[in-house]
User: Fold this.
Amino acid sequence: MKEDTTLVEVIAEKIEKYGSLSIELEKLKLIRKFSNVAAFIAFKLLVGLLLFLFFLFANISFALWLGTLLGNNYYGFLLISAFYFLSLLVAILLCKNTFQHYIISRISNFLKQ
Assistant:
């Protein structure tokens, strides 16, 4: 009878150890997933910042160049801002749903990995 209780105790200890190891494994998987998401976001933010700075200075340069061609610097800035305003209107009117679906599918595909 004593052998049965020790066998039950051994099995219970192994089940308990298995449960704690399974929990630990899931914690590690969650940490890895969070780290991947954080690294992805940090990289995209860095690239976005660098692209923003590039386009900012390129647009300022282009606006100044257009201004010298047109005679006044503010004409160049006015044309550049009008172009971006029209682009914004077109994007809002035509591409709102398409852009939302694209972003949703990208995020869900990334999180499924």
